[in-house]
Design goal:
- This protein is mainly beta.
- The chain has four domains: about 5-160, OB fold (Dihydrolipoamide Acetyltransferase, E2P) (Beta Barrel); about 165-255, Immunoglobulin-like, CATH 2.60.40; about 255-360, Sandwich (Immunoglobulin-like), CATH 2.60.40.10; about 365-460, Immunoglobulin-like (Sandwich), CATH 2.60.40.10.
- It is built from three helices and 33 strands.
- The strands form eight sheets. A six-stranded mixed β-sheet has the order 7-5-4-3-6-8.
- Strand 30 and strand 31 form a beta hairpin.
- The radius of gyration is 27 Å and the shape is flat.
- About 35% of the residues are buried.
Length: about 475
């Protein structure tokens, strides 16, 4: 089976990398695709872990147990973490990993071709001699503490192979790229696997889990049905390796709807304001933000479709940051700024709730807050990026002046959390100056009823020597 790995070679952090869902599958599904697999400890690196793309990063691993692609007598392997790409992996020195790679181990002559031109090198130490293995965040490498099932599988696979199987979960979900174990399970879903071994069926349990054991290896097509729900995809293709597994995590959605109207304090329509919904239970992952956020029309009306069943909070800025220009604090249905006083909307599968009326209070006043950023020795920190957040969302963003100060217009009656980041060095990528290293501050909060007009943030490392 091939895996889609999207490498975005731009000067940003490694979070820009995007992997196909199959790239995160358990080892029993990936075993035929994996070329190198061993347990080892990271003992040395030239990576300074600043989060930015750099060419030439490497980690030296001692090999403790070799499974595939590495001879049993091999003592060390040099791991290239896909340096120079947005899929660059980070390992922690001293920790033990199950290291996985979809490529073969490379000798020195082959490894020399890995150098990525145009990116600043990571650290000053040249790569040690020896076998080189390329990994990356999509390779399936993980700390041994999180790889117990994979390690147990590969040991059984090599010593006493087991029959193949297909398993997975069915959950309330509409996008396999955003799959999460915190989506609600769907018990009672009927699964049908049609392939080389004929037709096999299963039904999900109370946790949404299903398993089809003792299945003939090869290609299968999975479909699922559940009254009131539709599958996010019409069918799921699964390739089952010999003595391994096929995994299909299936998302299903219902077509519920929530609609209503937002009015100002005087009863006029509040047009163009941001409305969102989110699960009352914070342990459940919400649907993708774009699917549960909208703006009111000229009549102040809003409507959400494909809303899953559950209990939800609905409101203006229910899950987005208010702006000083707009002056509307987070306001929940039916018209309260206190989340503890908000009413919830209960939705069954395919149910529609109409007629919600959200009444906004008076526009909030503005308080100008000076955010002062200092180095640990008390000296001002100019050109520091500062953000003011509401419920984890950025409301205001700016940069300190020569005195290490920025004045932010914030809403009266709203709680804010502040943080700062000062860039301390820069690299050059294709003639562009990019941040190369930084220092952060600890977060500090300002209560909604605070009369303070100043917040002091202190950077958590000394100012670099010039």
């Amino acid at each position: 089976m091939r895996y889609l790995i999207v490498l975005i070679a731009i000067a940003h952090t490694a979070t820009a990398c995007s992997c196909a869902p199959a790239a995160y599958a358990p080892l029993c599904q990936r075993i035929d695709a994996v070329r190198v697999l061993f347990i080892g400890a990271a003992v040395e690196t030239n990576d300074n872990h600043d989060g930015f793309i750099k060419g030439g990063a490497w980690y030296r691993f001692t090999v403790e147990e070799a499974f595939k692609g590495v001879d049993s007598g091999t003592k060390q392997v040099i791991v290239d973490p896909a340096s120079g790409t947005s899929c660059q992996e980070e390992f922690t020195i001293g920790k033990h990993y199950l290291v996985s790679s979809y490529g073969n181990a490379l000798v020195d002559q082959q490894a020399a071709a890995l150098t990525v031109g145009g990116f600043p090198p990571s650290g000053g130490m040249p790569r040690p001699k020896g076998l080189v293995v390329v990994t990356g965040v999509c390779s399936g490498s993980r700390e041994v503490g999180y790889a117990a099932a994979d390690i147990a599988f590969v040991r059984r696979y090599l010593s006493s192979p087991e029959p193949a199987r297909i398993f997975g979960f069915v959950r309330v979900h509409a996008d396999e790229w955003l799959w999460s174990d915190r989506h609600p399970p769907l018990p009672g879903a009927a699964l049908r696997a049609d392939g080389v071994g004929g037709v096999r069926t299963a039904v999900t349990d109370q946790n949404g889990h299903y398993e089809i054991p003792n299945i003939e290896p090869g290609a299968y097509t999975l479909t699922t049905t559940l009254p009131g729900f539709a599958s996010a995809r019409p069918a799921y293709a699964v390739q089952v390796p010999a003595h391994g597994c096929g995994v299909a995590n299936i998302g299903m959605f219902s077509d519920g709807a929530i609609e209503g109207k937002v009015v100002n304090q005087d009863g006029t329509p509040a047009k163009g304001v941001d409305v969102e919904y989110l699960y009352v239970n914070k342990e459940i992952d919400n649907p993708w933000f774009k699917d549960r956020s909208t703006k009111t029309n000229d009549e102040g009306e809003f409507r959400f479709t494909k809303v899953p069943p559950g209990d939800f909070l609905v409101g203006v800025h229910a899950d987005s940051a208010p702006t000083a220009k707009e002056g509307i604090p987070p306001t929940y249905w039916p018209g309260t700024t206190a989340i503890s006083a908000a009413s919830s909307v209960h939705l069954a599968a395919n149910e529609e709730k109409r007629g919600l009326l959200i009444k906004l209070g008076p526009r909030a006043g503005i308080r100008n807050v000076n955010v002062v950023v200092q180095w640990p020795d008390g000296r001002p920190a100019p050109s520091t990026n500062v953000s003011a957040q509401v419920n984890g969302k950025i409301a205001e963003l700016g940069k300190t002046d020569a005195k290490g100060v920025i004045t932010m217009p914030l809403l009266v009656g709203v709680s804010y959390t502040f943080s700062g980041r000062a860039f301390t060095s820069y690299g050059d990528v294709h003639g562009n100056k990019i941040p190369d290293d930084w220092v952060d501050t600890k977060e500090k909060s300002l209560a909604p009823d605070s009369s303070s007009a100043e917040v002091v943030l202190v950077l958590n490392k000394p100012r670099p020597q010039r």
